[in-house]
From TrEMBL:
The gene is LOX2.1. GO terms for molecular function: linoleate 13S-lipoxygenase activity; metal ion binding. Keywords: Chloroplast, Dioxygenase, Fatty acid biosynthesis, Fatty acid metabolism, Iron, Lipid biosynthesis, Lipid metabolism, Metal-binding, Oxidoreductase, Oxylipin biosynthesis, Plastid, Transit peptide. It catalyses: (9Z,12Z,15Z)-octadecatrienoate + O2 = (13S)-hydroperoxy-(9Z,11E,15Z)-octadecatrienoate; (9Z,12Z)-octadecadienoate + O2 = (13S)-hydroperoxy-(9Z,11E)-octadecadienoate. This is Lipoxygenase. Residues 96-231 form the PLAT domain. Residues 234-423, 448-1149 form the Lipoxygenase domain. The keyword DNA damage does not apply. CDD domains: PLAT_LH2.
Amino acid sequence: MLNPSLHATLNQSSPLHLCSLPWRPAPPAEVKPISLFSPAAPSSFCRRKVARRRTGSGGIKCGAAEADEAVVSVTKKRTPTKVKAVATVKLAVGGIFSHVGITRGLDDIADVLGRSLYLELLSTELDAGKLSELAETGLEKKATGNYAHRARLGGDKEEGKYESEIEIEYDFGEIGAVLVTNEHHKEIYLKDIVIHTIDRSDNHEAKALTVHCHSWVHSKFDNKEKRIFFATKSYLPSETPSGLRRYREKELALLRGDGTGERKTFERIYDYDVYNDLGDPDADADKARPILGGSKELPYPRRCRTGRDRTKKVRIGTDPLSEKRGGSFYIPRDEAFSEVKNQQFSTKTLRSVLHALVPSINSALVDKRLGFPYFTAIDSLFNEGISLPSESVGSFFRSFIPRLIKVISEVDDVLLRFEIPEMMDSMTLNLTLKFNLISFQFCVDDASYLPSETPSGLRRYREKELALLRGDGTGERKTFERIYDYDVYNDLGDPDADADKARPILGGSKELPYPRRCRTGRDRTKKVRIGTDPLSEKRGGSFYIPRDEAFSEVKNQQFSTKTLRSVLHALVPSINSALVDKRLGFPYFTAIDSLFNEGISLPSESVGSFFRSFIPRLIKVISEVDDVLLRFEIPEMMDRDKFSWFRDEEFSRQTLAGVNPLCIQLIREFPIVSKLDPDIYGPAESGITKEHIEREIKGIMTVEEALKEKKLFILDYHDVFLPFVHKVRQLENTTLYASRTVFFLTPDDTLRPIFIELTRPKSPSTPQWRRVFSHCWDATGTWLWRLARAHVGAHDSGFHQLVSHWLRTHSAAEPYIIAANRQLSALHPIYRLLHPHFRFTMEINALAREYLISAGGIIEVSFSPERYSMELSSAAYDQLWRFDMEALPADLVRRGMAVEDPSAEHGLRLTIKDYPYAADGLLVWSAIKQWVTDYVSHYYSGGAAAVSDDNELQAWWSEIRNVGHGDKKDEPWWPELDTPESLIGVLTTIIWTVSGHHAAVNFGQYHYAGYFPNRPTVTRINLPVEEGEPVERLNRFLTKPESVLLESFPSQIQATVVMSVLDILSCHSPDEEYLGGEPEPAWAADPTLRAAFVRFSGRMKEIEGIIDGRNADMNLKNRCGAGIVPYELFKPFSDAGVTGKGVPNSISI
C-alpha cells in the first residue's frame, strides 16, 4: 500500500510556472505572493518525489511533469532567467551507446562538443499581445532551448546524464512540454528530464519539476521530426492550453501515420491490418493460410500494420495481399520489452526456446510420432529429463533457461535398472490401489486316486513315501533331504550378531499368532534378548528347503541363488553408497516409477564385470555421456497429488477453478439442441436424453426439477468444433470430435460429470456417428469413459488457448492499444489511465504471430485442430465474442453462472457459491470498477455532455468498433459511449480483460497443464469403438487399454515442446507491474487521484487476505482439500518466476 504520510505532502499537479521566479528574494510590498496550489506561504515546499520503478516502454505518452516545489510567486521583474535541464538516459547493455563503427565515433565527437541532444521548452500559453512590445498576439510563444552536453557519469552505471542551461523570458508562463532532438546516429532511451531553477544570488534552494519520458528517441538522421514530452497535468481536448493545442493534434497525426510504406524499427506509428501474415506460401505451399479479418467468412480483430511486401505466390484459400514473413515483426518502438524483461524473460528467451530448444528436442526425439510407452515415461520428464545433444545447446541455455536446463557431466557409472513387472506393465493405471486376486489352476495329465481308490499294489508305497516326507521332527535338515516339517517363525532375528536385531517368535502363541514355515532344525541362538524366545534359531548357513523345491538348472542360469546373493551382498551396498541418506523416502510416486524406467546410478568401481554377466536384466552401463539435460519442474498439481488428474472430481473441479474456468455454463433448456444446419451436420438434438440423466442421478429428481433447481451444467464444444471435424481428420497424427460434457451439482457445491457425448458429423459417404459415455463400474466402460474424457480435455485445452486466452485477451486487446495511441493524446486523462495496462502486449502478440499461431508454429503442431487452429479461433470470434459480454458480471450472467441481485455482494448471486474463478474475480472486478469510477468522476464532472463532447474519446471508441473490430461494427450490442457510467463500464471491461482475465487463463498454465495427461493438447487417434475403426485397435484396447490411452495422448515431441513453452509463458518477469502496485506519475501528482489510488491499492492487499482465507476454508471444497491446488490466480502480487498467482497490469509474461 502506498504510504499516506509520504504522499500527503505532494502538491497538486501543475507544471512549474516561470512567469515569475519563486527563488527570488521577497517581492516589493505592492506585489503579493501567489500560490498555485494552496494558500501556504512561499516557504512551504514539497521535497519528496514520487517513487517510480519503471524501466518499460511508455512512449511520450508517459510524458509528465512532477511539481516537487509548489509555490510560485509573481514579480514585475522583466529580465530573462536561466533554468537547468538534466536529461537522464538509460544506458544500453555494453555502455551508453554500445554500437561500434563510424557512427560511434561521430556520436562521441558530438558528445565532446556538447551538440548531441537539443532540448526546447514549450509554454502552455499564447502571447498576451498587448503586454509586450515583442508579443505577436494570438500566436504560440516561441520555444526556447539549448544543447545538452554529456555530464560525467556518477556511481549509477545504468544511467547517463545530459545537462543544458536554457534562458527563458520573464513572461514565458507554465512549461507545458519539452521538445527533444537526438543528434546521435542511434536512438537513445530517455528516462526523464528534470528542470530546475538556477539562482546563486540568495540562499534559496533550487526548485525542480520532472518530465517523465520512458521512451526511445529516434535519431534525427532517421526522422527529422522532434519528439515531444508533455507535462504531468492531464487535459480533456476542450481544456487543452492554447499553447499546446497544435502540438497535441500534430503528435496524434504522427502516431497515426499515412497508411503507406513498410514500417521501420525506430517508428512509433500505430495502424491496422488484417491477419495476413500467418502463412508462408513462398516457403512452402503447405504453409499457405487464409486471411483472418476483413470478410464475413473469417472475421477477426485487427492487428498492428507492418507494411511488409506481399508474397509472390498465391495459394488456394489465401489472399493475394498476404504479407511476407521475412525480417522482424514491426511493433511501435515504445511497445518493445524493457531491457530488464529482455534480460530475464525477453524475446531472446522465448526465441531461444523456439529457435534452439525445439530443434534440439526434435533431434533428441527422432520419431515425430513417437508417443509415451507408459506413464512412467511421462513422469521421467520431471524427474530425469531428456538428454539433449550438447553440441546443439550452448552455454546460453544454462544462463537463460535455468528452470529447464541441467547439465550432466563426468558420467561413466553403472546403472541399476529394473524391468517393469508384468502386472505393472499391464495394470499401471489401476489407481484404485486395490489388489486384483489372481487364481492359478494346475492341470495334471497323470491319473489321480483317492486313498480309498489306491490300487492294492501301491498302497504300502504310498504310505511309506508320506512317512519319509514327514520326517521325525529331529536334527538339522540336509540340503539333499526332501522332508517337509513345520516350525514357527523363529529365524527372523539375529540376537547373536546385534542386540538390535532380536525379534520375537511369530506363531505358537496367542499374542503373536502366525502361519508356520518349513522346519530347518538349525542350532539355537546363544543369546536370549528381551522379547525373544530361547528357541530362536541361528541364521548362519543356508536356509533349508526340500530339494525338489529348489530352482531348476534353467532357472539357476537365468536367475539363480548365486545371482540373488550377489544382489544382496554386493548390489545393495552399492545402492547404499549411491543413496547417501538412508532415511530418504520416495518423495512422489514418480520416484518409484523411475526405478523401472531410468534406474539408479551406481559408482562403477563398486560393481565389477560380475554384475554385467550375471544380472543383465538389472545392470546397464552408461558411458560417454556429457549432454545437456532438459528437466522440468514438477507442476504443483502433480506435486500435491500425482493421481489427481485421473479422478473425475478433479476434472470437474478444474472447470470452476482451473486454467480455463470460463466455459462451464448452466443448462437452461432441455433437450440440448445444436444451432448448426442439420442438413449439413446431421440431427441437431443431443443424444443425451432425459432417461439418461434421470438414471444417472438415481431418481433423486426429474430433469425438469433439475433444471428448475439449477443442477445441470455443461461444457459445450459441439457447435464450434463440429464444422472442423472432417477437415482435421484428413490430417495425419490427429483427430477431432465435437463434444458435450454434462455435470450434476451435488449438495456440497461440487460438480460430478455424468455424461460425455462425442460426435462425428455426417459426410457424403457416412452418416453422423455419436455416442454417449458415462462413468461405469465395469472395466471396459470405465476405460472408454477415460478415453472420452481425454478427448474432452484436448478440446478444452484447444479452446482455452485459441479462444479464452489468445482471442479474448491478446487479440481483442490489440485494437484498444492501437486506437488509444492514434486517437488519445498523451495529455488525455483516459490515455494515462489505460497506458500501464497496455505495457508489452504488442510485442508479445508479435512474438505469437511469429512463432506460436503461424503456419507450422507451436499451436499448429501441438493442438488437435493443427492447421485449422486459427480458423477455429475465427469461428469462435464470429459466434461467441461480444464486447459487452467481456465484462465479468455480464459473462457470468450470460453463462447462467450468476443472476443479478441488488442485495448481493457485487450485485450478483452466484449459481454455484463455491466457484473460485467467479468469487475471486468479482473482488478484483469491483476494485477495478471503483478505481475507474473515482478516476472518471474526477475528470467528467460535467456529466453526459462532457463524455459526448470529448472528440478524442469518441474517435477512440469509434475506431475500436469500426476499424479494430470492424468485422463486428454493425452489431447492435456495442455500448454507446455517451455518459460517465457507460465510459466507466467500457474502461473497466478493458482493464479487466488485460489484467484479471488474462491472469486467470495464463499464469496457471504450467501448474495445470505442465503434466500433460491432465490437459492433453491433442488426441491422436479415434476411439476404438467408433464405427468404421479397425478391429485391431479394439482388440488392442481390450488387451491393454492403457496403451490406447497413451497412444491418444500427445507425442513426446509435442508434449515436451508445449511444456517448455508453457513454463516460459507462466513466468513473471522481475520488473512486473501489478494491479494496484504503483501509481503513474500523473496520478500521484493529483491529490484526488492519489487518494483514490491509495484506496485501490489498499483494496488489492485486502483481496490477498480474503483469498488466503477462502483457500483455508474446508467448507469450500473446490479450493481446499487433500491434494488440491489452492486457487491463487487472483492474488494481486507475486514474486518473479512461475508462481501461479499475481495479476499484472497488462497482458505481460
